[in-house]
Amino acid sequence: MSQFFQIHPDNPQNRLIKQAAEILRSGGLAIIPTDCAYALACHLEDKRALERVKQIRQLSDKHNFTLMCRDLAEIGTYAKVDNTAYRLLKAHTPGAFTFILDGTREVPRRLMHPKRRTIGIRVPANPIIQDLLAELGEPIMTTSLIMPGDDMPLSDPYEIRQMLEHAVDLVIDGGYCGIEATTVVDMTGDTYAITRQGVGQMDELD
């Protein structure tokens, strides 16, 4: 049965953040709040936890996973970013955007698109996740908590707990996150394009 942490969305309790980070480090699978919706999250290098994510969501090997990063410097470790991309990222992070970028060798191949070798990158504005990332000192692998057959992500932490308490190790109740998705920006070609319009607004590419 999973643990259930009620963490203040604006002033996260440091004790609970440390416990959550330790669960992820030790191979645990967590459900976490983000800028837009709840997400499944695990340690970047943990193959077994990733397989559990795929099983819960019934995902194929072609699914694009997302790395939640602390800041621009961390993005540069895991994704290839030129000067033009850097300026756009700087203007829109942290925030409700997922950027598709070419991954570097630091990204485990199982997390990247199998043919394109791309990876989704997010820098969340959510204080709980900012503190969790700072405590971990490395990115978190995530994917939206959309159950098989559903179109929208789960949003009620108590419903999430009831449905998935035997499938995950931790549920973080960070309040209501909404059900809208991030805006996805593909930055892998010569021209950038919004491939999914979500919460984030980007006038440069309208």
Description:
It contains six helices and ten strands. By secondary structure, it is α/β, with parallel strands linked by helices. It has one domain: Alpha-Beta Complex (DHBP synthase). Strands 1-8-2-3-7-4-6-5-9-10 form a ten-stranded mixed sheet, with helices on both faces. Strand 2 and strand 3 (39-43) form a beta hairpin. The longest helix has 12 residues, at 14-25. The radius of gyration is 16 Å and the shape is globular. The model has no long low-confidence stretch (mean pLDDT 91).
Distance between the termini: 46 Å
How many structural domains are formed by the residues?
Answer: 1
Number of helices: 6
Q: CATH topology, what is it called?
A: DHBP synthase
CATH superfamily: DHBP synthase
Radius of gyration: 16 Å
Structural class: alpha/beta
CATH class designation = Alpha Beta
Question: Shape from CA axes?
Answer: globular
Strands, total number:
10
Give me a quick take on this structure.
By secondary structure, the protein is an alpha/beta fold. The protein is built from 6 helices and 10 strands, in the order βαββαβααββαβαβββ. The chain has a single domain, classed as DHBP synthase (Alpha-Beta Complex), CATH 3.90.870.
